Amino acid sequence: MKSTFSDPACSVARTVELFGDSWTPLIMRDAIMGARRFDEFRKSLGIARNVLSTRLTRLVEQGVMTKRLYQENPPRREYILTDKGRDFFSVLIAMREWEARWLDEGSADSVTLHHSSCRHELTARTICGSCGADIALDDIEFHVDPACCEG
Length: 151
Known about the structure:
This protein has about 150 residues and is mostly helical. It contains six helices and two strands, in the order ααααββαα. β1 and β2 form a beta hairpin.
């Protein structure tokens, strides 16, 4: 029986339930970089067909991607990111920044990200949505709803 992490009171657990396997974030990376077709994902990732099919189906079911017919005979579909899927971009950027700081041992990343308007390389930041200040862990107060801890 498959274990589940979909604790309704925990946003991290619900996100891990959808994106927590080793393939789905890589599929999302490729989709964000422009991959749309099944064979594009397969070629980039070297993933088994059945695993890729299962992951893509789940992303479509959860509204992260949608399928669109691009060829009628034989029928072929491509996978298009929805707004929900496009929002995962910020998660990937944060993961990339964390890796560069803590795991990178001098290896250059083969892809750099630049803001199209000013041409500077992107840096992930966590900011307050109200005042715009940069936020670090020490700046956070956790307010936990007591109902989420009832057993």
